[in-house]
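Give me structure tokens for this 235-residue protein.
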Amino acid sequence: NGWNNTDVTVTWNWADNVDGSGLDPANCITSSTSSGEGVMELTATCTDLAGNENDDSYTVSIDKTPPTISAAATSAPNAAGWYNGAVTVEFPCADTLSGIPAGACPASQTLDGEGAAIASAPQTVTDNAGNSSDPSNVVIVQIDQTPPVVTVTGVSEGGVYPLESAPALGCDTEDALSGVAVAASVVISGGNEDGTGDFTATCSGAEDMAGNLAPPASVSYRIESAPPVETLEVV
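Here you go.
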């Protein structure tokens, strides 16, 4: 790419005409070394024994500074610090002198799966002078893509219970990764005015810390009144 990443030494090869007086070694620069960075012109002069002087120049491009690269997620987590889907990590890179070759910045990474410490892989980049960057920072994210598990408590599917001792109904909400943000609540439908009949208990509205909504859970059961007790009157 026409760039160097170290100082460059230019050797000057002077020559006098065949019939000339010859070179004056004390007044001829035989080498020049660059210093610093950037596009610079090195120059030199030479004088022959008759006092005739000539000069020449050579342009060099020097870049000793490595490029920079960083890693960043393209989206932010929710207020609780969690994602509920895959996260894309990009690697912007830059070089202020020789530049980055086209297409040299690393491709983005997709962080998928689940866990409290899903990490990107560090990346490096090389500039047009051959300088390599330090590894990028590592992006660590929390991903939970699994909704909470909701169950109805107090009754079982198809259960039959006496009216006098009808069970207390409730909901159990569990989430193994990000934790429960909103617990499910129960709604009861069906039945008769006297509290007997066929009922359905539905637990819904649960959400975990990552924003995953739990599907509702329902249980159907029956409440029956106790049969009348017969009494025998003795006369």
